[in-house]
Amino acid sequence: MVRPWAIATDAEGMRFCLALACTAILAAGEDGVVHELVDRLHNLEAQIALMERESALPIDRAAVWAGAARGMIQAVDPWGGYLTADEVGIYGLGVEPLSRGLGFDWRHSDDGKVLITRVVRGSPAAQHGFHVGMILLAINDLDPAHASRRQVAEALARSGESVRLRVRPLIGEASVIELQRAELEDDGIAAVRTPVAGIAMIRIGRFLPSRTNESGPTAATTTADGLRRAIASIPDVRAIVLDLRGCSGGNLQAAVECAASWAPAEAAIVEQVARDPAKSRTWSATAPRLPRVPIIVVVDGGTASSAEVLAHALRFHLRSPIVGAPTMGKGTVQQLFLLPHGDALRLTVARLRAPSDAWLDQPLQPDVLVAQSTETTLKAWINEGKTDGATVVVEDQQLARAIELATALAVREGK
Asked: How far is 327 from 318, CA to CA, in rounded Å?
């Protein structure tokens, strides 16, 4: 939900801080508080003036004000932030199911590289061996490492039906690959296979909402529906290994519906606690739809948000063992608030609490700790996207331990 607020001013950067100040002044209603807020604004402006007089580096006032805004929010909200109008324009990338395109999500890393973060099964990218962790070196003639996020998004979106990409895989040399856009069936499920007869391995890359505007207890989100179809496609399932490693979350309702597919009817999946009572609610399960078989959940430091909701719920309601490494601990809900000139605030508006009463903004500790580097995990996933028959030999100890547990539990329960 997006809510506009603030006031209009002439200066690009100053309007944000003045908007916050005026809002706070109106709320405070006390002369002492008003004077303190005005003094703080004068002090900030004095610091910028000092930088302009003394710094040997060029000073961009708009960039300084934007930086001040970001610092102010991040000082109290680690998941919040200030977004420029350009950043707002591409804020929703990766949130909705991809319906047509090349078939991958991406992000800028801290060192400026553009990394592939998710590959849609059966997409042109998957067919050409794209994998999570691959580095995007060029988009036609654009160097994405020296481009803004908006420039990268526009280059990928406006390159016509054919796009020439230079990429570097995790293993091997860089190469140029030409991809043709195609219709996609994106359900957020990254991989489905049977490493052992009767043991289903399903990896979720992203929790995606419904392709329609449906909502409510009977509406199946894209990922929940994809999970059910994946399990139905495997005959005689005796146990399931649910791989949530590297899954940064996504749509909360999708995670709730996945958990509700196994949890007892009316069982609480997660509680959403907000300052605004209208944003607080308890997400509960409807009638179970999937077979009750042992489920092993695999997590790591990249498992966050909605993925943590699912892991907590399965552990609490089904006693599902958790294998791997501690999760990220990002059990919060963010909301975007538009400002009148196109920029925006992203604020944390709710915290999430598991049925066990544990707050989800603390890492989930696995029942079976298996240390493994992210690089090893990503290299092990390369085989999932290969269509040429060649495989990369990488031992995935976390997955191997999960399969071992799944097999043992299936035998114990006579599955």
From this structure: 19
Predicted confidence (pLDDT) per residue in 307-355, tens digit: 999 999 999 999 999 999 999 999 898 888 888 878 888 899 999 999 9
Q: Which residues is 274 bridged to in the sheet?
A: 350
Q: What is the pLDDT of residues 23-50, one digit of tens each?
A: 454 455 555 666 777 787 788 888 888 9
**In Å, what is the CA distance from 83 to each residue of 16, 69, 249, 316?**
11, 9, 21, 37
Q: How far apart are CA 118 and CA 173, in angstroms?
A: 20
**Looking at residue 86, what is its pLDDT?**
75
CA distance 203 to 324: 14
List, for residues 258-316, the tens digit of each pLDDT value: 999 999 888 999 999 999 888 899 999 876 678 889 999 999 999 999 999 999 999 99
Are the beta carbons of 164 and 175 closer than 8 angstroms? no
Strand partners, 175: 167
Nearest Cα to 195, choosing from 238, 255, 164, 155?
Answer: 238
Name the band, by pLDDT with cuts 50, 70 and 90, for residue 217. Answer: very low
**Cβ count near 404 (within 10 Å):** 16
Residue 171, token pair as written in the block: 């293993």
Q: Are 17 and 65 in contact (CB under 8 A)?
A: yes
Q: Which sign does the torsion angle of CA 38, 40, 45, 46 carry?
A: positive
